[in-house]
Amino acid sequence: MLALVATFVFSCLLFLSKPCARDMRLFLASISQQLALSLLGFLAGYRLLGGVASRATATAVDAMPLMPSFKRKRPAAKLETTDTTGEPSVLDLPELAIDCILAKLPPAELRNMAAVSRSMRERCRSDHLWERHMSDKWGSVLGTAARDEWRSYLSSSTAAGGGASGCGSAGSGKHRRWVAALSCVCPVVSWMRPRADGGAGTSGGPVLDDSIMSWYLHLESSEFWFPAQVYNREHGHVGFMMSCYDAELSYDFRTDTFHARYPPHGRRTVVLEDGVQWDRVRAPPVGTLAHDLHASDCLHELRPGDNIEIQWRRNKEFPYGWWYGVVGHLESCDGNEHFCRCHLSDTVVLEFNQYTPGSRWRQSLVNRKDHREEGNESDGFYGGIRKLQDKDEISKWKQLWPTDILE
């Protein structure tokens, strides 16, 4: 170290005595860097030596421990299991007991436990611990399309990160070496160390990988947009009452609501809606895309009183929305259930009782045998039909019923 100091002093004198060329400046900078690193290593060793010597003098004054290096690492297992206070740790429990405790923790506390140690991090990231949390909170709004979007998001993020990972690798290595040296002298600096998880975790966000924990945390952090459907879009606009439209959603953890982004259609650009409540969101019940005609497979079994959803769009440029209705009786039928033969007719009457009697939106007729898309530019186009079997689906539509009859 004294040789480095002498070389540094000589270089400074040379720099002051004559014009310094570019190579000399680079040499001086290198010498300064090595001197600083050596000084930090000396201080770190002195700091560690003081702790060792203070304990050693109690037993043997003439014992002279070797100066430890700040680069020396203790075994990982020892870091995780050693408890200098002698108090019991949760890591001392049997594995089954630890798993039972982790299974009872809510997501926020489970994430905090992942920061206790390396082995605990692996435990807390297990999919079986997060499956229940994902199902309880997100199960009603995440469908197959959302899972596909998540896989696509992972692939695109991995591809983008892979191209940038090589840039500045030498600079990042130097940065890590300097921070490691400083952290030995000043432990607070260790907070500046880059996380080993990489990906989104380096910026303080959730770690990006294919685990359920990663998906859950990305949903919570508003970083991920997923496809779903929204009842009564655009803040319950009268033109969309008793309908459900496809949208891309992003969760807002501050308000516990969603941002909705409706795709453009016709002359309209992308429509944004904020503050969408949980009770207005659902996972798409079928895999049919918004511009595709749904293949109706229930027409032969429809009877008066059945609850249905039917695709409807204003014109050919618009996406379909799902609209709620019921199967009605033919005009020739008096509605007596003992004599009703409406289910034997090729014509099916669909009623939308949220509209006033006499409205052109009140009723529509479809052919039971060869129904596809029917309609015109003035009344819109009616597409595929799905029969509602689930009581919860029917109850949801009843809850959305407008207070006033629509015109």
TrEMBL record:
Organism expressing this protein natively: Triticum aestivum (Wheat)
Domain F-box residues, every copy: 87-133
Highest taxon listed in the record's lineage: Eukaryota
Protein name in the entry: F-box domain-containing protein
